[in-house]
What we know:
The protein is of the alpha/beta class. The protein has one domain: Vaccinia Virus protein VP39 (Rossmann fold, 3-Layer(aba) Sandwich). 35% of the residues lie in helices and 22% in strands. It has eight helices and seven strands. A seven-stranded mixed sheet has the order 3-2-1-4-5-7-6. The relative contact order is 0.16. The model has no long low-confidence stretch (mean pLDDT 93).
Amino acid sequence: MAVFDKAAESYDSWYHTKLGSFVDKVETELAFGFFEIVPGMKVLDVGCGTGNFSIKLAQQGCKVIGIDISDEMLELARSKAKQAELDIEFYNMDVYHLQFEPESFDAAFSMAAFEFIDRPEAALNEMMRVVKDGGQVFIGTISGDSKWGELYNSEPLKSNSVFKHACFKTLEDLRQLKPEKLINSGECLFIPPDALEANITMEEEKKLSKTEKGGYICALWKK
């Protein structure tokens, strides 16, 4: 999709800032604290973007296939995977119409993509379809009822960025998706987006976790 193609080149640069690096750290710790990785498992990375988590999963021994709707982001993902000498397949594909047979994967994984999914139940159903019985489905996304959600919903940021297409969820929204198969859920990123650099620390994160809503939420289902 063209709107995401335009954001591809600058997407990774934010993660090199102090705040961006911290966000990546806490979100990764939350995700991999929930999602059980077994070397050799076959994982579908939904909305893989520039391949950040496809690469992290592959580095831990997973066989990864990443999908996204942006050709530009996929090209960057392929380049990064090649540079890291990782064998990852990337395809332009819509989560609502996954071109895989049922039970093709041991797990499906999605980070920072469900902000742009306007039919989350349909997307989750497709992810469940392609995962084997007993397999994991993990989703992580920006929380709509947090200070981070407020930022991305604000003007003019929303009208002048990819977030004009966003459909933010809350932790309760995620928990209401297939609750009979939900096995865990949680949040992180309690530090606000306008935090002073001196306050971007794990100590501050832990302190704010007692009073603030997390800016990033996740849920794990078992098929």
